[in-house]
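note to self: the first set is below, dont mix up w the second
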Amino acid sequence: MSLLPHQLSMTVVMTPDLSNYADQVQGGALLRLMDQAAYACASRYTAARVTTVCVDQTDFQDVVRVGELVTLLASVNFTDASSIEVGVKLVAEDYRTQTVRHVTSCFFTLTAMDEDGVPVLVHPLRPGSPDALRRYKAAQTRRRMRHEIREMYMRLHQGDVLEAAA
């Protein structure tokens, strides 16, 4: 599989330090790996430092067990000014049975920054295939939805922080 400059793949073996008592890899450990893949993909694409701003909903379809291989497939789907959306797909492989299954996917929004932490412009993503164009348009829709949800959340929770502090 050849990857484009806006894509990244990494495979990690799941070790006992990532698991619970049932030898299942903890969801937080998987999210950390996904964040690392999103970071690596976005920073390589932008040639800048990046920071995670938002992680969309993540639903785990299956468990990952100690000893399995986890492959993270990351792709820049959208850019806007200093903002980058990276989609990350996580698949698990039982190397003994050679079964591969999709465990989860989610979208990370990151911001590119300079050495002082000031946002910097990133070069626009130009979708080069029908599939990339589909992901680009879906990312635009998710971006609008994130803004709408953020506004609704702020209206819903106005004053909650002050009331909790009292």
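second set (the one i keep forgetting abt)
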Amino acid sequence: MNIIETDRLLLRKLSTDDAAFILDLLNQPSFIQYIGDRGVRTLEDAKRYIETGAVASYERNGFGLYLTLLKGSEIPIGMCGLVKRDSLKDVDVGFAFLPQYWLKGYAFEAASAVLTYARDTLGLKRILGIATPDNLGSIRVLEKIGLKFEKMVRLSADDVELKLFALDM
């Protein structure tokens, strides 16, 4: 079941059937560099990542990260959605796409639709975004969807410093 539909994309809940795609996405050098190594090395690891991450978030929060597919072909190209982290007061918009789908406007299109969904369907009043300082592509997307830089943060004491962006809706 699709949660969000745009002109070119479909966003739906992740399931363990998406494990092969998630295994590929999470092991892209760009994902590891900009988001982090999640230790997902096998299909079983990917299934566990989906179950303990996205699926648990759908049940706990009513939202999460969604598989993002090209409309028509339904080829998975990334994920985009909402994350509630214990270390941040508000929900943040997150996204990751396979590199071959960068610079085509998909992240902007998906993230814009997720913001609209967050405001209009979920009733959220404030959305955050985080990115490593060197992740210029993600920073551009966050700024283009209206988020403004607020401060530097760490999600945990031993984590890297991240740029925190916010939007009051």
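remember for set 2: The longest helix spans residues 43-61.
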